[in-house]
Amino acid sequence: MRTTRHPLRTIALWLLASSGCAQAALPSADTLLVNGHIYTADPSHPWATAIAVKAGRIVAIGDEKTARQAAPKNAAVIDLRGQTALPGLVDAHVHLLFGAIELDGLNLSTPLHSVTPDMPDAFLKAIADYSASKPAANILIARADFGTADPIAPHHELLDRAVPDRPIVVHNSSEHALFVNAAALALAQIGDAPLSDPAEEKGVIRDALGHPTGVLIEAAQETMERAVLPLIPTSEKLRLLEAGMQHLNSYGITSIVNATGDLAELDLYGQLRDSGRLTLRTRTAFGAVAYPHRLTERFLSDLETARSRYHDEWVDANLVKFFSDGSTGLAPPIVYQASEYKRIVSELDRRGFDLMTHAQRGDSVHLILDAYEGAMRANGPRSRRLRIEHNFLVKEADLPRYQALGITAGIQPDFCCQSLGTGYDATDPTVADRWRSLLDSGATLAMSTDWPCSWPPDPWVNVKQAVTRQVWRSDDTGPILSGPFDGANQGGARPIPETFYHPEERISVREAIDGYTRGSAYAARAEDRVGQLTVGRLADVVVLSQDPFSASLEDLGHIHAVMTLVGGAVVFRSSTDLR
């Protein structure tokens, strides 16, 4: 994993020492970028060599003469020296708070290897060593691959041997399951008695005597989250989020959609914004993993508060995230009764909220399309952003409905590909991950990493996988029958030479980049601000180590950010890569 640099306070400091420290403000910058190979993502004028920025917005783009004439007199000049620049990347689906917390914790699932509970000696040693390195921590957080289907799921006794005296919570790489020790179960008051919330109780894995095993799947994770998050002080959450943002900035990511969150999390971004410490533009959806929404007075009140409080270029709300199914066991479990899902979708659409829904199953995709279409008919025309996330399995008859209904397809190519793509049923002939078919049918594609479900949040691994559809396999996670995906660069997976999953579903480099810029900006309802480099838009730019349009396929996945600018201000710079 690459290390990141701290954001620099001014463009001028970029010209000085190669290291810096975090600062308390991100100023609106006056900047002149010259001598570049700049892809604007504007179909009418896709290429430029220079950009002039005033107060954080683009005032001219084209050739150097045009940009210099428009640039403010004292603008800081950055010579790109022929390097390729793009609009700042918009990661349309991440979980920033989870990622930031896990970035600070122990990660046992990396591109190099995956240490799983099926390797008990190595797993125990890693956990015990981590615990010893954090003697003052009142709770420990880790990330790993492990089975989630009984009886192959691990038991808390394994964790108890390594950490008997304080809670440890191990996030599954899918973020749809937790593996915890006895101390964590006690903290969350998960015992032999059933939980009061049936949705949460359904996800508590129990043995034959009714004792919790320490594995919590889907909605049961909420029980643990409610116990854990209050133990992290607000000041610490803010510190972790700053580090998480800097990590994403180091990959050229300048805007995100948080695919889970609530009013309390939004207030954290509001505090960072108000103190000038945001280096990432955020839109946050209300939702928790596989937890069914209920239209309670508190939930609706929080939605309205968030919508009225957060609607600027840095912190934005007005979005609700659903889970139509989950991501555990041998098949993704269904979350809603169809009629209940349709009812809630229609009511929230009536109230003017944008909606996004997780779907791994083909029947789930069909249900979502039916629910969205029903809401449109019931509530009449208006400006909407309706999204389906993952889209692993889409039936042929449902493909044209994306364009007809204006649905954005959120995709994460680095989850693909194993022998079934991202499918789960070998008897189902449906081709998984139909990116070319979706695009050709008229759907808008929005690219994302789903970090921390993929690790690291590397856009160029995603782009390469979208272009190649290479098959990967991890020997480390092979014994885990219920997942995880043998995705690109995930959990110790290695590419299988000359083996590709349905290459007819590939998309081009330019189409993938457009999905990370224009497509994701549209999905985030921010297409008038970001996603293209045009006059009037925010000057969010990433400078790359290599030109993706001419790079070999081998090099494509190794491209990285050299410099990242948000509003014309440098928030990341690699001192070793600038020419």
Describe the structure.
The chain is globular, with a radius of gyration of 23 Å. The relative contact order is 0.15. Helix 4 (120-133) crosses helix 5 (156-162). The chain contains 18 helices and 27 strands. The chain folds into three domains: 11-88 and 532-573, Roll (Urease, subunit C, domain 1), CATH 2.30.40; 97-229, Diaminopimelate Epimerase, Chain A, domain 1; 287-523, Metal-dependent hydrolases (TIM Barrel). The longest helix is centred in the middle third of the chain and has 18 residues, at 362-379. 30% of the residues lie in helices and 21% in strands.
Task: List the topology elements.
Elements lengths: L10 H4 L16 E4 L2 E3 L7 E2 L1 E5 L2 E6 L1 H7 L5 E4 L4 E4 L1 E6 L1 H8 L2 E2 L12 H14 L6 E5 L11 H7 L5 E5 L4 E4 L1 H6 L10 H4 L2 E3 L5 E6 L3 H8 L5 H16 L3 E6 L4 H12 L6 E4 L12 H13 L5 E2 L2 E5 L14 H13 L3 E6 L2 H18 L6 E5 L8 H7 L1 E5 L23 H6 L3 E4 L11 H10 L1 E4 L20 E7 L8 H15 L17 E4 L8 H4 L4 E6 L2 E5 L6
Parallel strand pairs: 1-6, 2-7, 8-15, 9-10, 10-11, 15-16, 16-17, 18-19, 19-20, 20-21, 21-22
Antiparallel strand pairs: 1-4, 2-3, 4-5, 7-25, 11-12, 12-14, 13-14, 23-24, 25-26, 26-27
Task: Give keywords.
579 residues; Urease, subunit C, domain 1; 27 strands; Diaminopimelate Epimerase, Chain A, domain 1; 30% helix; six-stranded mixed β-sheet; TIM Barrel; disordered N terminus; alpha/beta
CATH architecture of the largest domain: Alpha-Beta Barrel
Task: Characterize the main sheet.
Answer: 6 strands, mixed
CA-CA gap between termini: 22 Å
In CATH, the homologous superfamily of the largest domain goes by the name Metal-dependent hydrolases
Q: How would you classify the helix and strand content by structural class?
A: alpha/beta
Regions with little confidence, pLDDT below 50 for 5+ residues: 1-25
How much helical structure, as a percent, in the residues? 25-40%
**What is the CA-based Rg, rounded?**
23 Å
Q: Given this structure, which CATH class of the largest domain is correct?
A: Alpha Beta
Mean pLDDT: 93
Shape: globular
Give the total of domains.
3
